[in-house]
Design brief:
Elements (H helix, E strand, L loop, with lengths): L1 H13 L8 E3 L5 E5 L3 E2 L3 E14 L1 E8 L4 E7 L5 E8 L2 E7 L7 E14 L3 E13 L5 E14 L10 H9 L19 H12 L20 H9 L19 H16 L25 H9 L19 H13 L2
Parallel strand pairs: 1-11, 3-11
Antiparallel strand pairs: 2-4, 4-9, 5-8, 5-10, 6-9, 7-8, 10-11
């Protein structure tokens, strides 16, 4: 009975910052957080809270920050014998607590304090930050350590491992601009449609609601891209294949992509499109295949380094653009000055 009462008292002490006065100690170097990995196609990963040169650890309370929209807590474990409180999650903070039981000595030396397993809810980069640690010794005297240990974990799609655009894809996924085909695959080499690319530009530029004008008869009311096309049209970023046809489901060609990019850059910079620099497209052997209306925009994306040729000598203007290429050009657009 006494042992149970002591356990309850200890856990109440750990979970309340008001019961005991706190002795503050800034010794960040005594503690570290080790992740199992920083990048994986697997959704689960662990973080181990480690202590060095611990003098007397009878009980502890650790707090960590994370984003519950992208991560969930699977479990928290410790090798220290005793009683653990189930992880307490409130807003973006998780609290874990543990105490030894009975009249025993506290732990000493270097040790793993706890191991926490997280699961990424979706692909992208998430962060975990260890913010504080409260330790009670066997005499129930406490110390409070303010920590600033953090790391990032990236769940990547299984089909982009080793892909040239992996970093660009994951950055745009993390920013919520582009999405995977599902939780595990991105399909980087799949063609992207005109409506899909317009959607990426709308998200990247954070365009406001469109004017309601929709001159395209093939952009029907209620389709998922209706508002996207309206926004992009109102901003002067998109044009149709004709005055009344947008061809939303048609794979966008590389030269069509250059035109949207040039207009998007002009909109983002608040300048007229004819004020943007452009270079000659004669550097490409397939220059003659570039449509006359796309010469200037192809020259612009090459000069601004928003796009490159498919090779050093070929631009491939009529080739369909891929999802990987789209992620890369959107990243460059956002990072361009």
């Amino acid at each position: 009975m006494k042992s149970k009462l002591l356990t309850v008292a200890l856990m109440a002490t750990l979970c309340s910052s008001l019961l005991l006065s706190t002795v503050h100690a800034e010794k960040v170097s005594d503690f570290e957080m080790n992740p199992s990995s920083s990048e994986s196609v697997e959704a689960t990963f662990t973080v181990t809270l480690k202590g060095k040169a611990i003098q007397d650890l009878y009980a502890y309370e650790a707090k960590l920050n994370f984003d519950p929209n992208v991560l969930e807590i699977v479990k928290a474990e410790t090798k220290i014998k005793g009683f653990s409180v189930s992880p307490i999650v409130k807003n973006n903070e998780i609290t874990i607590a543990h105490t030894k039981i009975g009249n025993v000595n506290g732990e000493k030396g270097d040790m793993d304090i706890a191991t926490i397993t997280f699961k990424a809810k979706k692909a992208g980069t998430s962060s975990v930050k260890w913010t504080s640690l409260k330790i009670l010794d066997r005499d129930l005297k406490d110390q409070q350590f303010t920590l600033n240990q953090s790391f990032e974990f990236t769940k990547i799609f299984s089909d982009i491992t080793g892909h040239w655009a992996k970093a660009d894809i994951m950055e745009m996924v993390t920013k919520g601009i582009i999405e995977g085909m599902n939780a595990d695959t991105f399909a980087p080499n799949q063609n992207i449609t005109r409506a899909q690319f317009a959607t990426l530009l709308v998200r990247a530029l954070n365009l406001s609601e469109g004017s309601g004008t929709n001159p395209y008869t093939d952009v029907k009311s209620g389709v998922w891209y209706e508002d996207t096309v309206k926004k992009a049209y109102a901003a002067g970023i998109v044009s149709g294949l004709s005055e009344t046809t947008f061809a939303p489901d048609k794979s966008i060609t590389r030269e069509e992509m250059t035109m949207m990019l040039m207009r998007a850059k002009a909109y983002a910079s608040g300048v007229k499109i004819d004020s943007l620099n452009s270079v000659s497209t004669n550097i490409f052997k397939d220059n003659s295949k570039i449509s006359p209306w796309a010469k200037e925009s192809v020259g612009f994306v090459i000069d601004s380094k928003l796009m490159k040729g498919r090779s050093q000598t070929s631009f491939a203007p009529k080739a369909s653009a891929t999802r990987a290429e789209s992620a890369s050009v959107i990243k460059r657009l956002l990072n361009s000055k």
